[in-house]
């Protein structure tokens, strides 16, 4: 299983331990999603759909219907992998050409009501913790979603390394507890996020392990 998905599954397990949520996992790599071609036909028609005939319109329907969206992905080149980026680009049928200024930022007027939708962004990465690794993703997430919960985890290849079980399992357990906290409060405290993002081992040790293999 993907390193990031180990953590996301732990989070989902904690979140849904009473079975109160209906969870659907969409593996976008297995979907047929073309890139956005920038035709803006969606804005001309204003029906919330893309004119391209692939799997995206099904995803849009689910996206609109969901109360909570969890985007789970590994960091690729300081950003979101291209498969998922294509899905995100092609959510533009859900906004309108019209723009408004809100709290100093300019955004498009939504076509559907996003005001109660909660977005959680979980991303794992191969580098140890360093300022800047997740900065691009942080800015993109803040600008793309309303008040997203962001959990950015360094050193995630350790989640699938048998020698690292002694530090990987405690981190997965923290994700279970965080999932429960989210289910109760619909938010996560800063302390919880900090605990999830704390490197499993010090940077120097991680680099030594990686460079030995
Ligand atoms: C194409 C590609 C680009 C990557 N770019 C980065 C990067 O910019 N920063 C980073 O820390 N790790 C990067 N990585 C490493 C992955 O984020 C890391 O291996 C992660 O644990 C993979 O998680 P997964 O098993 O969920 O796919 C990259 C990996 C690939 C394949």
From TrEMBL:
<dbReference type="Pfam" id="PF03358">
    <property type="entry name" value="FMN_red"/>
</dbReference>
<dbReference type="InterPro" id="IPR005025">
    <property type="entry name" value="FMN_Rdtase-like_dom"/>
</dbReference>
<protein>
    <recommendedName>
        <fullName>NADPH-dependent FMN reductase-like domain-containing protein</fullName>
    </recommendedName>
</protein>
<keyword id="KW-0285">Flavoprotein</keyword>
<dbReference type="InterPro" id="IPR029039">
    <property type="entry name" value="Flavoprotein-like_sf"/>
</dbReference>
<keyword id="KW-0288">FMN</keyword>
<dbReference type="InterPro" id="IPR051796">
    <property type="entry name" value="ISF_SsuE-like"/>
</dbReference>
<feature type="domain" description="NADPH-dependent FMN reductase-like">
    <location>
        <begin position="8"/>
        <end position="91"/>
    </location>
</feature>
């Amino acid at each position: 299983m993907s390193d990031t998905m180990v953590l996301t599954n732990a989070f989902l397990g904690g979140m849904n331990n009473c079975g109160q949520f209906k969870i659907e996992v969409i593996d976008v790599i297995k979907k047929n999603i073309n890139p956005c071609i920038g035709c803006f036909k969606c804005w001309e028609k204003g029906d919330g759909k893309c004119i391209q005939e692939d799997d995206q319109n099904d995803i849009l329907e689910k996206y609109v219907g969901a109360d909570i969206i969890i985007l789970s992905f590994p960091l690729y080149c300081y950003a979101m992998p291209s498969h998922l980026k294509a899905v995100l680009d092609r959510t533009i049928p859900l906004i309108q050409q019209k723009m408004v200024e809100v709290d100093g930022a300019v955004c498009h007027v939504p076509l559907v009501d996003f005001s109660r939708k909660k977005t959680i962004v979980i991303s794992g990465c191969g580098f140890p913790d360093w300022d800047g690794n997740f900065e691009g993703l942080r800015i993109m997430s803040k600008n793309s979603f309303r008040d997203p919960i962001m959990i950015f985890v360094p050193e995630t290849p350790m989640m699938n390394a048998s020698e690292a079980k002694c530090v990987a399992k405690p981190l997965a357990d923290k994700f279970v507890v965080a999932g429960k906290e989210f289910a109760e409060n619909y938010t996560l405290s800063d302390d919880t996020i900090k605990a999830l993002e704390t490197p499993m081992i010090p940077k120097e040790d991680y680099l030594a392990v990686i460079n030995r293999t």
